[in-house]
Amino acid sequence: MLVQRPSKALLVGLVVSSLLALVMLAVMLASGGPVGFGLSALLAVAPLPVLLAAVLSLDRLEPEPKLNLAFAFAWGAGVAVVLGVALTVLGQELFARAGLHAATVDDLGVVLLAPVIEEALKGSALLLLLRRRREIDGLTDGIVYASMAGLGFAAVENVGYYLLAFGEDGPGGAVQLFVLRGLIDPLGHPIYTSLIGVGVAYALTRRTTGRHAAIALGYLGAVFLHALWNGAATAKSLPLLGTAYLVIMAVLVLLIVVTVVERRHLVARMDVYLPGYRDTGLVTEADVRMLTTLPARKAARRWARRAGLGRAMSDYQQAATELTLLHLRAERQDLDPVRFAVERDAYLGVMANARRW
After folding, report:
1. Which of 55, 153, 212, 294 makes the best surface tag, with the fewest CB within 10 Å?
2. What is the Cα–Cα distance from 42 to 83, expressed in whole angstroms?
């Protein structure tokens, strides 16, 4: 497949973020002890495979580069967590020096400072990925990258919360908190930050006037949802928690609808652009039918694996999808004709090398 060379800045960011995450976990281990830390880490990691699979399933048509996804996850787990804790503590210290009561300072840290600071830090992963803007082809990509940053943040943050519960109430306290954070509301952080992802992706993929305002609106939406949940949890009010949960779930449904609608649009555009390449001999009517529905694509890969052509079929489908996205980018942006021709011919070359049926 046609891929970009790994960015040195992206690699450095991945390494630094991963090291910061390890440092934070080491601090938790030293403060909580091996038993409490072990249980807390286990509870934090347990839902991750399912959550990661759920997020990545949103982007089956055009999977994002693994390095970019790893960077977003590590950024959330490392840089966002470390700076989030440091800046929130600093803000609380300023409130305390202003003469506010200790309980008020704690509440302001949870309900105000944490949402404002944490969403800015998690969302900054999207802004850093803007240099790789050709990888963000639609709103779904923004949701996926933002969700990865949110999952990374939540994984490390949850270790800390479970460790605190373990210290106060033992294993039962940690498990009880896990039910709330790991089972009832495991997608909180990914959902909040996904609104920033939508805003960044919209700004990148649209030509509308004022499109960059979508980034600010997405950030404000993320802060609102985060503060709504934290405020309800701080108030310890079951009705407020229920209301906040319903609002967050409604946003989740909306995000899923966005990805489904965008996927259908992409499939529809394949039916428009790919027939134009029939003269190359690389796209037949049967290929178009195969490429334009997810069940047909899956069935084709299954057949190809039995025929020993599994990798070839995956490469062909991926290149055809990227070719369609290239046409969409050319529609939405002022894409240089020479660059368009170079990328188009590269994707056609991949399709030519892969098509052996």
Report:
1. 294
2. 24
